[in-house]
Design a protein that fits this description.
- The protein is α+β, with helices and mostly antiparallel strands and 440 residues long.
- It folds into 5 domains: 36 residues; 95 residues, Beta Barrel (conserved putative lor/sdh protein from methanococcus maripaludis s2 fold); 83 residues, Elongation Factor Tu (Ef-tu), domain 3, CATH 2.40.30.170; 65 residues, RNA polymerase II/Efflux pump adaptor protein, barrel-sandwich hybrid domain (OB fold (Dihydrolipoamide Acetyltransferase, E2P), Beta Barrel); 120 residues, no CATH class.
- It is built from 7 helices and 25 strands.
- The strands form 5 sheets. Strands 3, 19, 20, 21, 22, 23, 24 and 25 form an 8-stranded mixed beta sheet that branches.
- Helix 3 packs antiparallel against helix 6 and helix 4 runs antiparallel to helix 5.
């Protein structure tokens, strides 16, 4: 028994098993490759044969196309061509808000007003100063009154009398000095009184001359300049008061209200957001090559919530987005489009690509090797024009759509390929053609 086991172990060595397996695999592979070459197969033990029934298929005749169209979609957002955060030019306390969110307003409608009590007091004070200055100017322009002139003349006569008395006194004192009755100092004092009286008389005569001549033009001009300065200050203050009321710069709708009554605001602080009532626009970025082919005024198709519309190409902005390397299109939406600012819109464009090839239905393709696809052509069998053999063709899919693909490869114009049911076929299999169509 041990002897038998050793013999079996030697005859079933690993090297011999590998050799036997290779021979069996070669024989089986040759038999499999040889079997499809003939449609005739052994049928029964009595030597009778039968012919394999060709499978009926639907075929299409290929038509070469020099170009194919590509439909691309680009998204953008709806926006108002004019919207603004309206604000005051001055700081203050919000006294009243005249509108609320959602209100539709016309241009020039008051929106809000700041408290102006302090400004009104300043304006009243300036008006009072103008009244005083105007009264002074009227007085200067009217000239001196008769009573003032008579008073001036009386003053001159009084100083003339005082001068005459001072001169007489000085003369008498000088005579007494010559007689030795008084000292020289007393005569000098009398002479000084004469000089004082003369100066007072000269001043009185000058005042009388001014009264007689009236107010100088220069003084009147200075008073007029003072009045104009005050009037300018009043005008500036009234402008500031007017700017404390915020008006709508254009007709539109109030979409956001940021503040309420009693809020303290600084100059430039947004009070509310206003969107203009006019045709809405869409901003969509597209590649540079596509933007250069579009024509202003054209009406490309857009989609809003799966509903198609036609928009008008209003402008192509000349700047390029540095991040996306796209140019921005401005599309104007027609009034019938029920869009609101912020909604997403899809733009569809069809572009022609200059690449020769063929359109095939997706049902005509099966996955191939190295990223390629395979379609099955029909090769006539000699001796029977109604039966064809399946012949595979490797193709490259250039463009795939939902139900068809644009391909190129070893196909020729006019070739017929199987349109559907290719998963049932193998190379060399006999088939008959039900019908022959052209691809859509």
């Amino acid at each position: 028994m041990k002897r038998v086991k050793d013999i079996l172990r030697a005859s079933l060595s690993p090297q011999r098993l590998i050799a036997l397996g290779a021979i069996a695999l070669a024989f089986f592979g040759g038999w499999m490759l040889k079997k499809p070459e003939s449609p005739i197969a052994a049928a029964d033990v009595e030597g009778e044969v039968e012919v394999e029934t060709p499978l009926p298929v639907r075929a299409i005749a290929l038509q070469e196309t020099a170009t194919y169209e590509v439909e691309e979609s680009y998204s953008g957002t709806v926006e108002s061509p004019r919207s603004s955060d309206v604000s005051f030019q001055h700081s203050g306390v919000v006294a009243t808000l005249f509108v609320s969110e959602g209100d539709r307003i016309a241009a020039g409608t008051p929106l809000a007003v700041l408290d102006t009590q302090e400004l009104e007091l300043q304006r009243a004070e300036l008006l009072a100063q103008i009244d005083r200055s105007q009264a002074r100017l009227d007085e200067l322009q009217a000239g001196s009154r008769v009573q003032e002139i008579e008073t001036g003349r009386a003053k001159v006569r009084r100083y003339e009398a005082q001068l005459e008395l001072a001169e007489l006194t000085a003369k008498r004192r000088q005579d007494l000095v010559r007689r030795g009755a008084i000292a020289q100092e007393e005569a000098d004092a009398a002479r000084t009184n004469v000089d004082i009286a003369q100066a007072e008389l000269d001043a009185a005569r000058s005042e009388l001359n001014l009264l007689l001549a009236g107010t100088p033009p220069q003084q009147q001009a200075a008073q007029q300049a003072e009045i104009r300065q005050l009037q300018t200050q009043v005008a500036s203050l009234e402008l500031t008061i007017a700017q404390h009321t915020l008006y709508a710069p254009f007709s539109g709708t109030v979409t956001t209200q940021y503040l309420h009554e009693g809020s303290v605001v600084s100059a430039g602080t947004a009070v509310m957001h206003l969107v203009r009532d006019e045709a809405l626009e869409v901003r969509i970025g597209v590649p540079l090559a596509i933007a250069s082919t579009l024509r202003l005024g054209s009406r490309p198709q857009i989609w809003l919530q799966d509903t198609p519309y036609r928009a008008v190409l209003k402008s192509v902005l000349p700047e390029v987005d540095t991040q996306t390397q796209t140019q921005t299109l401005l599309l104007e939406l027609p009034p019938e489009v029920p869009a609101v600012p912020g909604a997403v819109v899809r733009l569809t464009l069809r572009q022609a690509e200059a690449t020769p090839g063929y359109w095939l239905p997706m049902t005509a393709l099966v996955s191939g090797e190295r990223g390629l696809w395979t379609c099955y052509g029909l090769r006539e069998i000699e001796g029977d024009s109604s039966v064809y053999a399946i012949e595979p063709h490797a193709v490259e899919v250039i463009r795939a759509e939902s139900d068809r693909a644009f391909v190129r490869g070893t196909l020729q114009p006019g070739d017929r390929v199987v349109a559907e049911g290719v998963h049932r076929l193998v190379p060399g299999q006999p088939v008959t053609v039900l019908e022959s169509d052209s691809p859509q």
